[in-house]
Every structure is written in structure tokens, then in C-alpha cells.
Design goal:
17 helices; alpha+beta
């Protein structure tokens, strides 16, 4: 096994927990706790991303090295690795939850390769001081979903954390999947997550809530210096160690707002629903983080949430993600305001969140619908389309995949019938859709763009292949029998989600009827 370059700045430069014993507790005046992964029975490498491995300087041979597989299963450390878990808080479903922390995620350290820094983190590697009413483990179904979705989102062009590996542990884990009093034994697994930073809004919220302003300033300075170094070079305000200026904090928060806005606009473009947008699940660097009860829109429905815990309130449904993004940023602003003279600059940053989100969404819609530019009347045209798609139960991905190919000279919704889930939906709204298509064709006639150029642009905004919930569940069902063929097929497919791939027609089909209400295909819980 080759020697890797671990730097571990978070561990070296920020204060740690004075208590070394591993038991659940409140951790004060510290940002991390020492903790070793709990060894597993029989670590087995089920799958890995060769692209992420290459990004980290690892070869295929490295990934199959027994020492590497053992490390990715939590059974040993490679030279330079430094395991720890971090301390943070958060608002969960709108309520302050206090200290949360890495309850089943354990860092292996920060790997530096070609002047790029990557935090490596094992999710499901055992208990930490932050494990709440759980064993620190994860099950195969949730680990597989996170592994696949991390990579799928990256190739869709969505800012995201990555996944290096999926390791089956050989151990059994007890989980009550729907919190309904029916716990079952499930296969355990560990996913190795990779990102430049896993720092969350909640890291700053907890320090502010405890009035630990000196450590809050230190954490802000560290985060700007390590995770926003390229951005910092472009600023007129310099960084004073452990004492960031008001102007720099305001500019930094503005950058966070803008990154978050662009990320959520991407979610809306591809039909992704995060499912549990608590502030502890929000990345400070604007990456999609923590793939739990996520889901992909099949039939277009702004009110759909994949999270059973959210079924009643629908706080985190598809159509509310922009609003929740702002709400979460407001909570981060509350934390930052505890060390600022006033909140004026933070409020201006929140205004910038709205402006960037609006422009990012407009850019996405212009691309999805093939418009050559944005006109004020386009909003009404597009909203009417989404309204009809919702009422008629129309598949989002298939609708936009096929929209470029309608005959604009004689548009007919029959050309898009493949996207309808029911014959009744098609029949009831056929006339309405044809009226809309006539207006759409009239609008498109104003464009001077060539058909070829328009089709290429629409194809770049509308994925042909997404990780539909039922596809992920099929991969889970096979993997639980020891068959990784579906994982491998999906990994290959989702590397080119915008390009038609020969022989892959089955992956373009809309959700089958059997998956409409099947566990894992329609609704999921936070259980893992």
C-alpha cells in the first residue's frame, strides 16, 4: 500500500475534547473528539468510484489492497490517518436541537493530493461521543443509496460531496425503518465520503448558542483560510488570525448565500429533493451533503417529500427547498450576528441569496425549455406548464427529455404521451396541454437559434438518466443477495447522464406501478 499524504489541519489547529473516553456526552470548548472506528467482522469492498480514487491518487490496485479495504471498513488505520468526530448543533424541522455532532461519521483525516485537500469520512464506522440513541452504524440500503447518489449528483453538475467506497461489514444492524415499532436485523455497511470540507452551518450555530465567541471567531478564521482560500485571494479585506473583521465576515456570508442559492437551483433543475434540510445538514461550502431520505421527482409534484418524518408538514418538500434554504441561512446569520455590531451586512447577503437563486433558476429554465433568452411573459408560460404537469401526473425527466423533439410546426401532446403516468391524466388534460404547446411553439418561433443548437442546449440542462428511487431500490435488493451488478451498471450509466446510451433504454423508463408505494421507492425515513 502506497504512502498517502495526510495533513489533518482541522485536528491540528482547532481545540479538541479533553476527555478521551468514548461515551455520549456534551462536549464543551472543543470542535472535535478523539474516536477510533469500531472494528467490523468481515469488511468486503462491494463497490468503489474509480474516478474518486484517481482524484485522491489511488489506483485500482490500491483500492483492492487488503490494508486499504481494512481501513475503509474501520479495522485499521493507514499511515498518517487521524480519526476523530466533530462537534456541532443544528435546527431540526425548525426547532433548535442543541448539540448533535458526528453521531455515526468518523473522519480519517485530510488527504492532500496535487495541492488539493480532501476530508475522508467513514459513515457507519461506530459510536462517537455524539451518538444519540443509536449505535453509530449504518445499514447497506442507506449506505448504497448515499454512495450512488453522491456520484450521480456530481455528474449531473450539482455541487456535492463525493463517495469513494461502499464496504459491507459482515455485521448485522438493528433498524426500525419507519419508526413503527417493527425493528429488523439488516446488513451493515460503511461508505467513505470525500469532500474538501464537511463543515456545516451547525458548527457555527452551536458555538454561538453557547456564547463561545472566541472559539466562534477562531472557527470562522480557520474555515475561511482553509476552505475559502481561493475566494479569500480575491477579497480586499485580509484575514487576521482568530479575529476576522466585520467586513470580511459579511463578505464571506454573502459567498455562502450565493453558493447555497446556486446549489438549490441545481436541485430544482434536475428534480432532486434532499428530504431533510436541517441546518446540521447544510454545507458551509455550498455542497449537497448527507444523502439520507432523499428522492427524485418522478411525476412532477412541488408538494412531494420523500421523508416519512416530513409527510404531514411537508417542510422539506420539493417546492419549498428555496424557502428552507433561506430559513437555514437566516439561522446561520443569527449565529454570526452574535459577534457583529449589527446585522445590516448579513441582511444584504440574504437579499443576494434571493437574487442569485432567481437568476440561477431562470438560467436553468431557459435551458430546460430551450428559450433563447428570458422575457417577463415566460414566467406565466412556464408556470402553466408545471401546473398541468402536476395535475395530469407527468414524469418530469421524460417530459423534458422529449420536449425538444416535438414538431413545433404542428405541436401535439401525443408526442409526449410517454411521460404521462395514467391514461386518465392524458385524456383529461390533452386539450389543455395542446393549448399550452401552441403557446410554446409561438414563443419558440421568436428565436433565431438553430434547431441543432437549441437541442444541444436543452440536452445539457435536461438529464436523460437520474437515480430514480426504484432503480436504487433494485440495486439494494440485489446487493443484499450479494449481487453488485446493478450498482456497477448504475455507476457506469450515471457518469454520462445527459448522453443517450445504447442498450440503456430500461433506465429511461418512468417509475413502474409496483414502485408507486413500495418502501424505499416512494417514501423513506431518516433511519440508517
Amino acid at each position: 500500500m502506497r504512502t498517502l499524504n495526510f495533513d489533518n489541519r482541522f485536528y491540528r489547529e482547532l481545540p479538541g475534547d479533553a476527555v478521551t473516553a468514548n461515551y455520549t456526552r456534551q462536549v464543551k470548548d472543543a470542535l472535535w473528539s478523539n474516536v477510533m472506528p469500531t472494528p467490523v467482522k468481515a469488511p468486503f469492498l462491494m463497490a468503489y468510484s474509480s474516478d474518486v480514487a484517481e482524484m485522491l491518487g489511488l489506483s485500482d490496485a490500491d483500492m483492492h489492497d487488503p490494508a486499504m479495504v481494512s481501513a475503509l471498513g474501520g479495522n485499521q488505520l493507514l499511515e498518517g490517518m487521524q480519526p476523530y468526530a466533530t462537534c456541532y448543533g443544528g435546527h431540526q424541522f425548525g426547532n433548535w436541537a442543541g448539540q448533535l455532532g458526528d453521531g455515526r461519521a468518523i473522519y480519517l483525516g485530510e488527504l492532500v493530493h496535487k495541492n488539493q485537500r480532501f476530508e475522508l469520512q467513514l459513515k457507519g464506522a461506530g459510536e462517537t461521543p455524539y451518538s444519540r440513541r443509536a449505535d453509530g452504524r449504518a445499514v447497506l440500503r442507506s449506505s448504497l443509496r448515499e454512495f450512488l447518489c453522491s456520484e450521480a449528483m456530481y455528474y449531473l453538475g450539482v455541487p456535492t460531496t463525493r463517495a469513494l467506497s461502499l464496504v459491507k461489514t459482515g455485521d448485522q444492524v438493528v433498524r426500525d425503518m419507519f419508526y413503527d415499532g417493527n425493528p429488523q436485523m439488516e446488513q451493515g455497511a460503511i461508505v467513505c465520503r470525500v469532500a474538501p470540507s464537511f463543515t456545516r452551518f451547525g458548527h457555527f450555530e452551536l458555538l454561538a448558542s453557547r456564547g463561545n465567541h472566541a472559539l466562534l471567531k477562531k472557527m470562522i478564521s480557520f474555515t475561511i483560510d482553509r476552505d475559502f482560500s481561493d475566494w479569500l485571494k480575491q477579497q480586499t479585506h485580509s484575514l487576521t488570525k482568530d479575529e476576522p473583521s466585520t467586513a470580511l465576515i459579511e463578505a464571506w456570508f454573502t459567498e455562502i448565500c450565493e453558493r447555497t442559492a446556486r446549489m438549490i437551483a441545481h436541485w430544482m433543475r434536475v428534480g432532486f429533493v434532499h428530504g431533510v434540510m436541517n441546518t446540521d445538514n447544510m454545507s458551509i461550502t455550498g455542497l449537497t451533503i448527507d444523502y439520507g431520505p432523499y428522492g427524485w421527482i418522478d411525476n412532477f409534484d412541488p408538494g412531494w417529500t420523500p421523508n416519512t418524518t416530513d409527510a404531514q408538514g411537508k417542510r422539506y418538500c420539493f417546492g419549498r427547498q428555496h424557502d428552507i434554504g433561506r430559513w437555514n441561512l437566516e439561522r446561520l446569520a443569527d449565529a454570526l450576528s452574535t459577534i457583529l455590531p449589527d446585522a445590516v451586512g448579513l441582511n444584504h447577503a440574504l437579499d443576494q441569496y434571493e437574487a442569485v437563486y432567481t437568476q440561477s433558476l431562470i438560467d436553468a429554465l431557459v435551458g430546460k425549455f430551450g428559450l433563447d433568452n428570458w422575457q417577463d411573459s415566460d414566467g406565466e408560460l412556464i408556470n402553466r406548464c408545471f401546473e398541468l404537469m402536476t395535475r395530469a401526473e407527468v414524469d418530469m425527466t421524460l417530459f423534458f427529455t422529449n420536449l425538444p423533439h416535438i414538431n413545433l410546426a404542428a405541436p401535439n401532446i401525443a408526442d409526449l404521451k410517454i411521460a404521462f403516468y395514467t391514461e386518465q391524466g392524458y385524456t383529461n388534460f390533452e386539450a389543455d396541454f395542446n393549448d399550452w404547446l401552441a403557446q410554446y411553439a409561438k414563443r419558440m418561433a421568436q428565436s433565431t437559434e438553430s434547431t441543432v443548437a437549441r437541442h444541444a442546449r436543452m440536452a445539457s440542462h435536461n438529464p436523460r438518466y437520474v437515480l430514480r428511487n426504484y432503480l436504487a431500490q433494485e440495486a439494494i435488493d440485489l446487493a443484499e443477495q450479494g449481487d453488485t451488478s446493478m450498482i456497477e451498471a448504475l455507476l457506469k450509466l450515471l457518469r454520462n447522464p445527459y448522453t443517450e446510451q445504447a442498450g440503456m433504454e430500461r433506465f429511461e423508463q418512468k417509475r413502474p406501478d409496483w414502485a408507486r408505494h413500495k418502501a424505499g421507492c416512494s417514501m423513506l425515513s431518516c433511519s440508517s
